[in-house]
TrEMBL record:
It comes from the Eukaryota. This is Uncharacterized protein. The lineage of its organism: Eukaryota, Fungi, Dikarya, Ascomycota, Pezizomycotina.
Amino acid sequence: MTDFMWRQVPIEETQLGLRQLTQIADEDKMQDIFAKFLTAPTELPDEKASAAKILCQILGIEDLIATNQRKPYEVWCASNAIMREAEGDDERTWFLAHRIPRGREVSEEAAVMREEVKNLAASEPKLSQLVSNYYKLCDMSEEAVGANQCERK
């Protein structure tokens, strides 16, 4: 659903994936919840928009993320990976939650926060790697992020 919300996949792929998921789950309740979306036509642009709106209503979200650019999506995913790794330690989670979003900023204060985050993560290899990847993404251009994503495929 994250890829759908960030406009990273076509609505048809979202519909197909959700259809497969509901079939595998074999849950009538789940199929009932998504029935209107799963049967929505998606051939024409206005049908695609209507199907997206239906899924947004089902999921309880106001609308899709305004951009379909790859960089904001990748940065968001990277920051979430850091926070998932930090779960279980309230102090560390709070510390990261207040500093990670500043990683995209270019200022003296943001640079200090980056160093604080790197120092906190240094003793944990996985967290350190996630932080490093996050800041690398923050510093890349939209074009470089897109090219990097194509290389991974």
